[in-house]
Structure formats: C-alpha cells, structure tokens
TrEMBL record:
InterPro entries: SWEET_rpt
Organism domain of life: Bacteria
One Pfam family it belongs to: MtN3_slv
Designated name of the protein: Small conserved membrane protein
Transmembrane portions of the chain: 21-42, 57-76, 83-104
Assigned keywords, A-Z: Membrane, Transmembrane, Transmembrane helix
C-alpha cells in the first residue's frame, strides 16, 4: 500500500484541532452547568434543616470537601482551569450553609 494513502485515511479518523477545541469548550460549559445544578439541589437540604428535619452530616461534609479540593486543584494548576473552579465554588458555600443549618434550626 502507498504510505500517502495510509496517512490521509488516518487523518480523517481524527478530529481536527479546531473541532477538538470547540468540543472541549462545549463539554466544559455543559459540565460546569451540571455541576452548579447539582450543588443547587442542596437548597432543599437547607430548607429541610431549617424546617427541623436535619439531614445527616456526612453527605454535605464530603460534598463540601470534594468541592474545595477540586476548586483548589483548578486554581493551583499552571493555567487556571476556570470551569473547574467556577463549578465547584457554589459547592463550597452551599456545603457550609448546609452544615450550619444542620445545627442551627
């Protein structure tokens, strides 16, 4: 087989650089939105805590610590990973509020 033909068929199998950048950008936007929505679901936990039905501590505590680690990781990378930071900051604050409302209701 001609090596020129092999190379051209190999190139078609891969996404070009511009398309790859656009796909990664779209995935980062969607992942950021989904992560923020996940953390916003803790508002119902906060409401439950304030209504006198506190939730167990382990879930909001681990969620908050996980959000802190991921936000810190995104912040400390050589090139800041803003989707990672932005998507996890709400988790830190909502985790703190959820934990506080477990004990103050």
């Amino acid at each position: 087989m001609d090596s020129g033909t092999d190379k051209s068929s190999d190139r078609r199998r891969f996404i070009d650089v511009n398309s790859r950048v656009n796909i990664v950008r779209l995935i980062s936007i969607l992942a950021t939105i989904m992560c923020v929505l996940m953390y916003l679901s803790y508002i119902t936990e906060i409401q439950s805590n304030l209504a006198g039905n506190p939730v167990p501590l382990i879930q909001p505590l681990t969620m908050m610590l996980d959000a802190m680690l991921w936000a810190g990781y995104g912040w400390l990378k050589k090139y800041r990973d803003w989707p990672l930071v932005i998507s996890n900051v709400p988790g830190i604050f909502l985790g703190i509020v959820t934990i506080i409302t477990i004990y103050v209701h």
